[in-house]
What we know:
By secondary structure, this protein is mainly alpha-helical. The protein has helices at 22-25, 38-58; strands spanning 9-11, 75-77. It is built from two helices and two strands; from the N terminus they run E-H-H-E.
Amino acid sequence: MTGDWKRWLTVTGAEHMNFVDYAVLQPQLGLPAFPIDGERSIAITRAYVGAFLDLHLKGKRRPLLDGPSDGYPEVRFW
């Protein structure tokens, strides 16, 4: 990764499909659940994408992007 501002984050227990509505609907469809709950993965996505957009589109600093958070222990900063 190059550039002045960058973050590389992963979510422990998550797979690619955790970050779409499919993860929330999966239990209702009778399909095996992912290691991380669909509702939780959606909450993580909203928080981090929202913080990114606030910073880069509105110019509002969001500490969530500065490092690990007690509120989201699944998110790992590399």
